[in-house]
Amino acid sequence: MGTSSLQNIFDTHNHSQFSFDGKRTTVEQSASSAKGKGLAGICFTDHCDFFVPPMKAAYEHLVPETFDVEAQQEEIRRTGDKIGNQGFRILKGVEIGLQKKCRDSIRDFLSGNSFDQVIASVHYLDDTDPFYGGYYEGKDWKTAYGHYLETIYEEMTWLGDFDIMGHFDYVARYAPYPQASILYKDFSDILDALLKYLAENGKALEINTKTYQDYHGRTPVLDINILKRFREYGGEAVTLGSDSHDPGRVGDKFSLYSETVRSAGFGYLAHFEGRSLCMDRIG
Ligand SMILES: [Zn+2]
Ligand SMILES: [Zn+2]
């Protein structure tokens, strides 16, 4: 099997200058990159986290409570008018950070704004930030990964109002353990619960290709058994997201992972427009 064509595929997870950590790109630069790489479209999903753990206090000035939604959407419209003709789509989204203590703010934010697509992700838990390490102290890999997955389940099923479960394996990226991957066999109970919920509620499972790269000498892998299990539960919607913060990573490894999705039994990838599921045949 050769490489898949990207012509029907959307990159559904990208950050722009409207994310606190998105200063290495702009909507226009990343959209141009997506178009240049032959993708069908790109969705900008800037960060919205309502609480940042104290250990990241030195960076707090970079983290607004939320991003300027109006400015982001205006810039997406402007860029669409400039380069989005001839079928290329530029979509407006958000990556909402799930946290129990922020539930009210999250609900208000989502009901007060309209997006093409909402990704629900866990970035902070137990008032710690896995990116800066504190989360892993005193935990073995199985406890650390399992608790992260359980937290996704708890907050995602509470929210309901979202389209895509973001990076279920985020917690493995920055972990200090030699065990770098979340494998189905190690977490079958909680993964079953997550996948069943997504399948039964028409939500998408995200393959976040930012996870599958080198992190201080270890490279997490995607376990295809997770995709196969999702299929067994009747799951249909799988999205590819690069989680890019710069134009170069837009669509990163999409040929490889669209083949993985196909070999797990899916004929389509997915994206969302106006919060409705759209299916894109794998070329
Ligand atoms: Zn994220
Ligand atoms: Zn992201």
Going by CATH, the homologous superfamily would be Metal-dependent hydrolases
In the CATH hierarchy, the third-tier topology is known as TIM Barrel
Give the beta-strand count: 9
Distance between the termini: 12 Å
Radius of gyration of CA atoms, rounded to a whole number: 18 Å
Whole-number average pLDDT?
A: 94
- Which class in CATH terms? Alpha Beta
Order of helices and strands: EHEHEHEHEHHEHEHEE
State the shape. globular
* Sheet having the most strands: 7 strands, parallel
- Please give the CATH architecture: Alpha-Beta Barrel
The largest beta-sheet arranges its strands as: 1-2-3-4-5-6-7
What is the count of helical runs? 8
Can you describe this structure in just a few lines?
The protein has 283 residues and is of the alpha/beta class.
Architecture blueprint of SSEs:
Elements: E1 10-14, H1 27-36, E2 41-48, H2 69-83, E3 89-97, H3 103-112, E4 117-121, H4 141-159, E5 164-165, H5 170-173, H6 188-200, E6 204-208, H7 224-232, E7 238-241, H8 254-263, E8 268-273, E9 276-281
Parallel strand pairs: 1-2, 2-3, 3-4, 4-5, 5-6, 6-7
Antiparallel strand pairs: 8-9
Helix pairs in contact: 1-2, 4-6, 6-7
The protein binds zinc ion (2 copies).
